[in-house]
Amino acid sequence: MGRRSGIRRAAGHTAYAGIIGAFTLFTAFPFYWMLITTFKRTGDLLKRGNNPFLYNEPPTLENLRVLFQDTLYVRWLWNTAFVGVVVVAITLVLALPAGYALARLTGRWGEQLGIGIFLTYLVPPTLLFIPLSRLIALLGVQDSLWSLVLVYPSFTVPFCTWLLMGFFKAIPPDIEEAAMIDGLSRLGAFARVVIPISMAGILTVIIFSFTLVTQEFVYALTFITTVSHYTVSVGVPTFLVRGDVYFWGSLMAACFIASVPIAIVYNFFVDRFIAGFTVGAVR
Amino acid sequence: MIAPAAIYIVLVVGVPFFLALYYSLTDITAGSRELHFVGLKNFAAIIGTLKFQAALWNTFVFAVGSQILVIVLATALALALMKDFRGKWLIRLLILLPWVAPMSLGSIGWLWILDSIYSVINWTLQAVGLITPDNWPMYLGKPYLAMASVIGVHVWRLLPLATVILLAGLTSIPKDIHDAAQVDGAGFWRELFQITLPLVRPIMLVATLFGLIFASTDMIVIFVLTRGGPYDTTQVLSTLAFFTGIQGGDLAEGAAIAVFLFPILLAVAVVFLRIARRSEVI
């Protein structure tokens, strides 16, 4: 009996390690591959007989040189970060009060407004960008990063309002009421009492919005035409794919550099992110 | 307090939405400034075409197929990550990676991995003797394989987020419940299907709903990997609308194709939210 359960436990451990290993291989292999490709010579990459896992020719920094010297990669990273930070700020300014108000509004009105905000998430970007490009021309911000700053909150605000609404609902109203009895206005109670205890939810919103911004492609592709105004997700494929010629080494380097640092930063916050999501989405 | 958000949404989503609806009823093109009201002509014109019908079906296959895979895999992965083990920090980092990669670049990474001549997958399969050089699978060049590939890459991209969301649901279940189940002698599968999964159902439904909407409106994976090909077998409504409306310049028809998605998503959302709400009450 004891031996059999021991064998079973060992089998369980192996199966468990196998599952984790398989998933990790699936998610991380492309990044490992990007890293290998980054330092390969083009001749090595494009020879069919070569073992792709090995460096058949000595490694090179040429792909990185092309990326950093022949393209505006650093500029594009900077543009993406800039748009990301501004959009996150706008999202917080709009979504925090809205989410709070929706959480505290009771009855039909509150519920219908909540549904209305959710519905905007259903409108596909492919539908919006034709009219939006006219709006942008009207405001005179075409071909500038401000056009993205204007448009991106259209998908971050609804989602984040909805997420924060759930989050604030979990905070008992007594807490603000106590603060209001102590002489704070509702706004003051919100700013000084509710926001500090909602940091997990706010962090969730920040991470979420920033990711959505760095991922966005369609609007950036259609609204921006000047090379120095591109974001990473548009600049890299536009510049390193010329017709049928792919600069694989530099492309892979660009992707690796743009992803891995953010992933490391996120990994520090993921527990609090999970906490924010638990409260926000379940209630 | 809600006014700033509401005003912004009305201006940047509401007004353009109705403008797009209006465009779908006109003959507007990218070149000319004139437009005439043509009623439902655009809709009548697109619904009859094989291209549109195929795109509608492909959207369904792509969205539903990828979501089923995402939910099943994310549940398994989230359950596995509930345990503590050494090196979890690193494993979690590696699993989070696809989520933070700018997806146009992540898709290009896959384009390289699935390349018709230099695919590392094929090289490995050949090295272990599973395929020979003359029957290398063309992952992006054969209809069914191409659909499987874009679904696979979409799953790759959504898996981390879905796992994090499910992990959130799983950690919110009080430990007493699991202890009680074990005291009562419930085995792993019984506990999973009768206790754990029903308790995370609301959050799972919400995650699936967002996933479905996302998969039907986002076009980046398909745009980069196949551009809708081969022979439109991976053409979905969002890519078709983009190619027709933006690259083809037929704004009215592009708008009509994009509008078509909205009522479908609306119906799906209503059904899901109903179920989610009901399972929360129980």
Structural summary, described in words:
The complex is a heterodimer of chains A (283) and B (282). Chain A folds into two domains: 2-38; 71-282, MetI-like (MetI-like fold, Orthogonal Bundle). Chain A has a two-stranded antiparallel ribbon with strand order 1-2. Chain A has helices at 2-38, 42-45, 62-70, 73-104, 107-120, 125-139, 145-151, 153-169, 174-181, 186-197, 199-215, 218-223, 232-240, 248-282; strands at residues 241-242, 245-246. Chain A has 283 residues and is an all-alpha fold. In chain A, 78% of the residues lie in helices and 1% in strands. Chain B has one domain: MetI-like fold (Orthogonal Bundle). Chain B is built from twelve helices and no strands. In chain B, helix 3 runs parallel beside helix 7 (143-171), helix 4 crosses helix 7 (143-171) and helix 11 runs antiparallel to helix 12 (251-281). The longest helix of chain B has 33 residues, at 50-82. The interface between A and B is large, with 91 and 89 residues.
Brief characterization of the structure:
Chain A has 283 residues and is mainly α. Helix content of chain A is 78%, strand content 1%.
Please tell me the overall pLDDT of chain A: 82
- Assigned CATH class of the largest domain in chain A: Mainly Alpha
- Average pLDDT of chain B works out at 82
Low-confidence stretches of chain A: none
Q: Topology, pairings included?
A:
The complex is a heterodimer of chains A (283) and B (282).
Chain A lengths: L1 H37 L3 H4 L16 H9 L2 H32 L2 H14 L4 H15 L5 H7 L1 H17 L4 H8 L4 H12 L1 H17 L2 H6 L8 H9 E2 L2 E2 L1 H35 L1
Antiparallel strand pairs in A: 1-2
Helix pairs in contact in A: 1-14, 3-14, 4-5, 4-7, 4-8, 4-11, 4-13, 5-8, 8-11, 8-14, 9-10, 11-14, 13-14
Chain B lengths: L2 H21 L17 H7 L2 H33 L5 H13 L2 H11 L6 H8 L15 H29 L3 H9 L4 H30 L2 H6 L11 H11 L3 H31 L1
Notable characteristics:
heterodimer, A: 283 residues, mainly alpha, MetI-like fold, 2 domains, 2 strands, B: mainly alpha, globular
